[in-house]
């Protein structure tokens, strides 16, 4: 009881003390589920930079969840100042449905407002017993794969589109019949459709389900570091997809909170060398030339197809493939 | 309200207490329900029909209702047994077991789901044993049944228990003395008395299972047309930012649960009337 009292008292003090030190600004970063550790490391880096630049200290709060769910929360009133998502559509929806961000948000920062990127890769069990080297191996009869449900996970939408991109190259862009056949088989081989990327990781690693986990290359590397290189091997297919991690200032919230300048700086500092090194440490691919050179051996050369090249645009991809009654629904129909 | 004021009550103020009750019912039950109706009212009938009859959704109704039916029936048997043991026998740790029955209510369902998935996976404690005899539980419809049974078992136990406690042993003894076999005593004396409570428990267990989400999705495997539950389909529609379609599917579950509860209430009323003549 006493502990509770002190807690309540200190909480009260904290809230009442906040307006006094007006120099202290707060920033809320709304991000995707598996970026928790990344931003926990980035925030102190940025806070030091901001202190040096302006002499002010800053408190950065993090909010994590599936990025579609986060976008929904912001539309319903979550006061996030910036978003750092893993899918363009989840940012775009903030403009389309609520005019919460700038119309030309993609041009506000370099590289289409994506400070880092990744691709889709495979994690297989040690020694690669099923000999999985490329996308076509995932459609073989005796291979069970694990990736989340494309309906609920941006991560899995990249997987689906990467497989489609491979099929377009292998069978010809117009040969939709063979592409469909391939995708159908690949989808039928999925052992568990978890609702998110971390769930799929748990199914593959903890529960021992399936022969191959298909997820972001960054996640594949993190798992291998965490669970040991003696248990898993990494396979990066020769052809894969460019998975961008877009960022944007939620202008309406930032304006109200008086954090526009801070929010903008928070995102542009992601392009600095220090931040890019940190991102590379978390196994993301980055743009800074020096950092790229230093990490060349860790990120194999891969042909990265863009969503635009595979499906026209994200908007188009959502409509034709992932909307209800779309291609994905048809391919999974029984 | 003279008929209420006529008698001295322990708690005074019939008017105000009824008012407060109605206010809370409105805020907590009716407001969300009307919000749901408002969301769906943005759709035309055709859109509504299209949203709720998508083949994948229909498949999920079958999986959900089928698994809920099996789970609640099994719970009827197991719950009755549980209640019987708790009422009729004395053993050490009885109070602990009694408290344990409520665990599924106290535990966040997501925790239950993760735990069950761990136990029943092919490399889990229970799953590895079952896998030896060729039964796979996790990531199949069977897993859904298990998860639903877990979260809704207390309903049966807690509705049957007090009724069992009230049955006087004299009736049973009378039956035995008059030469009835044990099974006849059970079928003709015990079962008729607890039948309404048992049925209500099973029905509550069924309606709860219809809406269960957290515990199920971790163990279901979520394969389209095989092990996708309706609540997951609502979640999927929300992820697509298709709020009206999500509400439309939710309204189907709401209506199913409401009509079932209503039917049970009606039946129970009639049954009690027959028994007690009031």
TrEMBL record, chain A:
Gene3D superfamilies: Periplasmic binding protein-like II (3.40.190.10)
Stored InterPro entries: Sulphate/thiosulphate_BS (IPR034408), Thiosulph/SO4-bd (IPR005669)
Superkingdom field: Bacteria
Name of the featured protein: Thiosulfate transporter subunit
Biological process, per Gene Ontology: sulfate transmembrane transport
Keywords: Periplasm, Signal, Transport
An example Gene Ontology molecular-function term: sulfur compound binding
Record-linked NCBIfam families: 3a0106s03, PRK10752.1, PRK10852.1
Family, per entry: Belongs to the prokaryotic sulfate-binding protein family.
Compartments, record wording: Periplasm
GO CC annotation, single: periplasmic space
Main location class: periplasm
Leader sequence segment: 1-22
From TrEMBL, chain B:
Domain of life: Bacteria
TM stretches of this protein: 12-38, 65-87, 99-121, 133-157, 243-267
Cell compartments where the protein resides: Cell membrane
Alphabetical list of InterPro entries matching this protein: CysT_permease, MetI-like, MetI-like_sf, Sulph_transpt2
Chief location: membrane
GO molecular function, one term: ABC-type sulfate transporter activity
Keyword Protease part of the UniProt annotation: no
Record domain ABC transmembrane type-1: where: 61-264
Glycosyltransferase found in the keyword field: no
Gene Ontology CC entries for this record: plasma membrane
Keywords: Membrane, Sulfate transport, Transmembrane, Transmembrane helix, Transport
Membrane topology: Multi-pass membrane protein
Quaternary context: The complex is composed of two ATP-binding proteins (CysA), two transmembrane proteins (CysT and CysW) and a solute-binding protein (CysP).
Family: Belongs to the binding-protein-dependent transport system permease family. CysTW subfamily.
Function: Part of the ABC transporter complex CysAWTP (TC 3.A.1.6.1) involved in sulfate/thiosulfate import. Probably responsible for the translocation of the substrate across the membrane.
Name this polypeptide is given: Sulfate transport system permease protein CysT
Organism listed in the record: Salinivibrio kushneri
